[in-house]
Amino acid sequence: MAADTKIRSIAGAVTLLCVSILVGLLLAEALVRILLPQPVGNALPMYAPDEQLAHRLKAGFQGLLRTGEFSIMVRTNSFGFRGEAWDSLQSRRILVLGDSFTFGYGVHEAQTFPACLCVALEEMGCDVAVFNAGVPGYGTLQEEQLLERLWPRLRPGLVILAFTVGSDLRNNIEQRLRPEEGFEVREGYLVKRGLPAGSRLPLKAFFQQHSHLYVLLQKSRARAAMKQDGFSKERTACSHFLGAEPCGDMANAWEITRRALGRMNAYCFDRGTRFCLVAIPHPVQVYDRLWSEETSALGVFREGLSREGVQQRLNVLAHDMGIAFIDPLAHFRLHATEVLYYPLDRHLTALGHQLMVDELAPVVAREIECLERSELTNASSTPENERE
pTM for the complete prediction? Predict the structure, then answer.
């Protein structure tokens, strides 16, 4: 009798505890929805494993990507990249390599800067086709491998590498030095390798779409991870991606980046293809409030940060290699009163993509002119019998 009473007492206590936790979670969910509504939405199972690149986009995929900040249709062509079929007959072809910013996460297909660049160049009288080869989660090393995979199929006259300030350096570290911290594909979704193997992705997707509390907790976890990426355990400026004098993993990331850029430039040069580099600014570099928050978090080491340091370093590398470099940061800062990035998601808005085109189009047009002059020179120097 005493044992039965004890069992009932324990069962009652456990039930009460579970009910209390459930009620607490429901109350927390209600409070977050009222006071701190979150961009609930869905992820898309649009990825496939790739032995060389770790992951790639599925070919022929279509799906609706929704958050509280945007709702866009995502489709991929037979090559497995965003946009229409790559069957253009234009002789002048431009290949744009990049990550989710180039892919256009958060904007419609026609609003991505590669698509808008094509329109701008056509308005300038250039008959071109621009291929968007942006893949979310890629870094410079994967973009280098993708160039070698795509060039024989497309034979572009110009290759543009879009370098995303912040994430590209981190991705290069993961790809070369810490592969266990990179991305992998599970059931079509792109996830960090650190996610436990038994994690139920469909359940996660359900909470992502319906629970504001879950999204808030995920954001807090992501911010903590970003701080860990930005600072070393000693929280020194040199380990931050905006550190004026990189050290440790960040110094290694820059060396990895330098070598990859050199190899990509040489690969293009050997094939008569021009190569140029554009830096996509980080919102911390654009908005004074975010810059103030970032430097305040660093405390006594804030003097070791450089707001334009990444672009300055890329400019030096590009100059040394003879690469055209486009830096839209100043143009972005002139428009800092406008919404250039989604406040929560942090990807470029349609206006942010357009600002990229404002800076890219004139430089790309000049690069096309250089290509045309080079082709004319080569044609005129070719003996008549060889041309026949």
Answer: 0.83
